[in-house]
Amino acid sequence: MTDFLPASRTIRLTPRPALVLTTASLLGLAMFCWPLFAHPQPTAAAHTADAPFVFMATLPVLILVVLAELSRGGIDAKALALLGVLSAVNAGLRPLGAGTGGIELVFFLLVLAGRVFGPGFGFVLGSTSLFTSALLTAGVGPWLPFQMLASSLIGLGAGLLPRARGKAEIALLVAYGVFAAYFFGLLMSLWSWPFLAGDSAQLGFVAGAPLVENLHRFAVYTVLTSTLGWDTGRAITNAVAIVFLGPAILAVLRRAARRAAFQL
Fold first, then answer.
1. What is the rounded CA–CA span in Å between residue 110 and residue 7?
2. Per the confidence metrics, is the pTM higher than 0.90?
3. What is the dihedral sign for C-alpha 195, 197, 198, 199?
4. Which domains are delineated in the chain?
5. What is the mean pLDDT of each run of 10 residues along the chain (264 residues)?
């Protein structure tokens, strides 16, 4: 029965860190949605200036959560070591698919780890995994903080999933893995849409246009450029990996949690 215990809390979110985490997540989502409400400059270079602001929203949250819980004894050296190991594994998995047809292996492990170790750990792991993999693959650019934040939200959500057991839990994680694939693609398309779509009459962002009109343009753009290819491939990869590898990996992660005394 211990394999079905609730998520471990390697980073226990007391009210203050939880409030900071929630606030940063909402501000981050607002930054993804800025094209729908703002009047950006028409060049891609202009958006590069936004990236540091996302770093300012993401990285302090990671530091605050870790330091606050360290000071309260909520996270110890074993938890930090586990975070480092999983970040390294995720970073090593990402280049294997090289993004070919949306085949990305980084997200299924993030979902499983967030499920086992809780939302705080999932949030931190999402950012550290993408940051580490970007260093390994020379993928550092203005898109990186957006990728980090989107991945952190996926890890956070995995830790908040309801309780389930056996096949029901795997089905729940598969459904969430599929959702996470499209969610990540949607957010990443949203931040780059005004610049990659250009002046296209059907797809392009129109500053100052009604919200419904821009939403329609974005929906057509993301379906044609992301959903039908990259996102669907990512969703299939997540589903297959969770079905075939999920039970074994969940058992390993939960055994590690018990031996490290992470369970509450």
1. 14
2. no
3. negative
4. 2-259 (1.10.1760.20)
5. 50 74 80 70 49 60 59 67 91 74 85 93 88 81 83 93 94 97 90 70 71 84 81 92 96 88 56
